[in-house]
Amino acid sequence: MKILVTPTSFNKPVNDEAKKMLEAFAGEVVYNEFGRPLEAREVAQMLEGVDGYIAGLDYITADALEGADALKVISRYGAGVDRVDLGAAKDKGIVVTNTPGTNAVAVCELAFALMLSLARAVPRLDGAVKSGQWPRNNGMELNGKTLGIVGFGAIGKNLATRAKAFGMDVIAYDPYFDEAFAKVNGVVKSTLEEVISGSDFISLHVPLNEHTKHMIGAKQIADMKQGAYIINTARGGLVDESAAADALISGKLGGVGLDAYEVEPVTDSPLLGLDNVVLTPHTGAHTNEAISGMGMMSVRNLIAVMSGEDCEYVVGK
């Protein structure tokens, strides 16, 4: 039995227990030596003769799966499956699983860190002091401001409770809105348009698909409050980076905080070099706690499917 493991953080010490469990189960385990998510052609090459696949943020297209005749399961190390061609997997009888909720706290805390960093210009002021300057800067308080959350799942809910603790008003949009949670935690159910027009900070927590591609573009930005802030710790492509850059330069937007980008790694985004932007390298899920949780759950999911046992986290079952 041959298993392919590609997440770049799987081999960290916090995953030692998960790694031992996997290697005890499988006869051969192959790890990603590229140090980055795999392109489709690389996935295709590495899946030859592979029975099980613990997948990072690789591009798992129909072409990548075409020759994967032995593959029984793709166990996503994370919640998102937007880079997996689910139709192609289903056609080949490949079960797809994920690890929902394991990185919710990690991602929401980074989203909140980006909000605070933008509100108080932390990265810029840090750089100024380290270079011998002593600037005066008037920031803004989160207290009393409105946070609009697009995508009210595990991450969005965690973000909402933290925002309420900071004295923020919270409105949220989700097609499958959790009314009970919102009532208990003082979150106002809103339409997407209401979130866009009524928020001081907008935080995105949705998958990337044909419906969400550039869901924040020039039109949506034009409808936002003057000086609004955009936070994206979900998927690159949700925000039109060119439109956001234009709005930052004009002053329409107060700031942008991104952990996900249209092209990764970032090399020539129009947002690079702008002062009112905080950028992190798709690191939202990279805490010891989240890495450990994703590692253990992804291994357990893979073993369950390959052993013919029930798996709670099958996608699209």
Name the structural class. alpha/beta
Please name the CATH topology of the largest domain: Rossmann fold
Helix content: 25-40%
The residue-averaged pLDDT reads: 96
Number of helices: 12
Oligomer: single chain
For the record, what CATH class of the largest domain applies?
Alpha Beta
Beta content comes to 15-25%
How are the strands of the largest sheet arranged?
Answer: 8-7-6-9-10-11-12
What brief labels describe this structure?
317 residues; Rossmann fold; seven-stranded parallel β-sheet; alpha/beta; five-stranded parallel β-sheet
Describe this structure in words.
- By secondary structure, the protein is α/β, with parallel strands linked by helices.
- The chain has 2 domains: 2-102 and 287-306, Rossmann fold, CATH 3.40.50.720; 104-279, 3-Layer(aba) Sandwich (Rossmann fold), CATH 3.40.50.
- It has 12 helices and 12 strands.
- Strands 8-7-6-9-10-11-12 form a 7-stranded parallel sheet, with helices on both faces. The protein has a 5-stranded parallel sheet with strand order 2-1-3-4-5.
- The longest helix is centred in the C-terminal third of the chain and has 19 residues, at 288-306.
- The protein is globular.
- The mean pLDDT is 96.
Topology overview:
Blueprint: E1 2-5, H1 16-25, E2 28-31, H2 40-46, E3 52-55, H3 62-65, E4 73-76, H4 86-91, E5 95-97, H5 104-119, H6 122-130, E6 146-150, H7 154-165, E7 169-173, H8 179-185, E8 187-189, H9 192-198, E9 201-204, H10 218-222, E10 228-232, H11 241-250, E11 253-258, E12 277-279, H12 288-306
Parallel strand pairs: 1-2, 1-3, 3-4, 4-5, 6-7, 6-9, 7-8, 9-10, 10-11, 11-12
